[in-house]
């Protein structure tokens, strides 16, 4: 039976001639209507915790472009915030946190997850779900433990997550406790998102690609699997997309072991290689270069066509290989959607 939502059909294993399309970071700074609302709202975190505003931002890209899915407007760093770590965003600089420096900083977080602090997020979900067109799926999300931990330890974005990698080598027991705290919090948070009304989930492991293989196994693959197992046990049937950016040669194994319904592919993955070497099972999502979208023109058309060709016949969700860049012209997003929706004709 075909669902009326193309994204959910593909997550259940259906290949569609016209793949459903949504974009990571589709609710954000490239949209003038987002800039306008943000200018009126308070801080970025205040905006995330304002259900009325967050619901409107979630709906903005659907209203403007008609994507096949809406992604909840929030941030991965609301989880450290609800764990009691101080989090703020400096405009032009990104996130700032009071960094975790030693074992006792980690242990202080144990048992401290205050899910009540995230009540506004669940209220946002409740507001959005009644407003979505019937063909549009609703995606909830969280950051994966490794990626969230990397911000908690560095206290900011870094190019290579060196502070968290060093912490994990120097204090593996404390780091494992931090990852466990994040697994538990993420599971509880995702279940509450489902109960509030999202229909599928994406877990963002944006910094999976910086780790050597054994560390990848321990801090990326194992915690992702734990979260997926636990959420599926509690709420069977809700599909989960795992995005391990930089997962590279791990992807064929993750397809067989994670239990995810889709794997997100980053920009560096060759779609022809992916279609050939990632075993059937999960749908594949991706992986247009955000810079090709920014550039537009013939280069954009060429990249779109090559992705469509490579994944033809497989369950595929069209997306970027990472988030939309703030400088992206709106017409290029329209060009992308029109071209993808002409596929199969
Ligand atoms: C690593 C990460 C973060 N947040 C997120 C990730 C994983 C995905 C990725 O790698 O891009 C995920 C995220 N962040 C945001 C969303 C909302 C939904 C959507 O995808 O549109 C989602 C899913 C809003 C946001 N999160 C942020 C903004 C910009 C805030 C503003 O200036 O108005 C938005 C719209 C801020 C943010 N939040 C974060 C950073 C590093 C920054 C600053 C730099 C940047 O914007 O990329 C942490």
Automatic annotation (TrEMBL):
Cell location: Cytoplasm
GO biological process: protoporphyrinogen IX biosynthetic process from glutamate
InterPro entries, per the entry: UROD/MetE-like_sf, Uroporphyrinogen_deCO2ase_HemE, Uroporphyrinogen_deCOase
PROSITE patterns: UROD_1 (PS00906), UROD_2 (PS00907)
GO MF terms held by the record: uroporphyrinogen decarboxylase activity
Residues flagged as site, Transition state stabilizer: 75
GO CC terms in record: cytosol
Chief location bin: cytoplasm
Positions bound to substrate: 25-29, 75, 151, 206, 322
Keyword set, alphabetical order: Cytoplasm, Decarboxylase, Lyase, Porphyrin biosynthesis
Pfam families recorded: URO-D
Record field: catalytic activity: uroporphyrinogen III + 4 H(+) = coproporphyrinogen III + 4 CO2
Segments forming domain Uroporphyrinogen decarboxylase (URO-D): 20-29, 139-155
Metabolic or biological pathway, per its Swiss-Prot or TrEMBL entry: Porphyrin-containing compound metabolism; protoporphyrin-IX biosynthesis; coproporphyrinogen-III from 5-aminolevulinate: step 4/4
Entry EC number(s): 4.1.1.37
Superkingdom as given in the UniProt entry: Bacteria
NCBIfam families: hemE
HAMAP family tied to this protein: URO_D
Subunit-level organization: Homodimer.
Function: Catalyzes the decarboxylation of four acetate groups of uroporphyrinogen-III to yield coproporphyrinogen-III.
Family: Belongs to the uroporphyrinogen decarboxylase family.
Name recorded for this polypeptide: Uroporphyrinogen decarboxylase
Species for this entry: Methylosinus sporium
Source species taxonomy: Bacteria, Pseudomonadati, Pseudomonadota, Alphaproteobacteria, Hyphomicrobiales
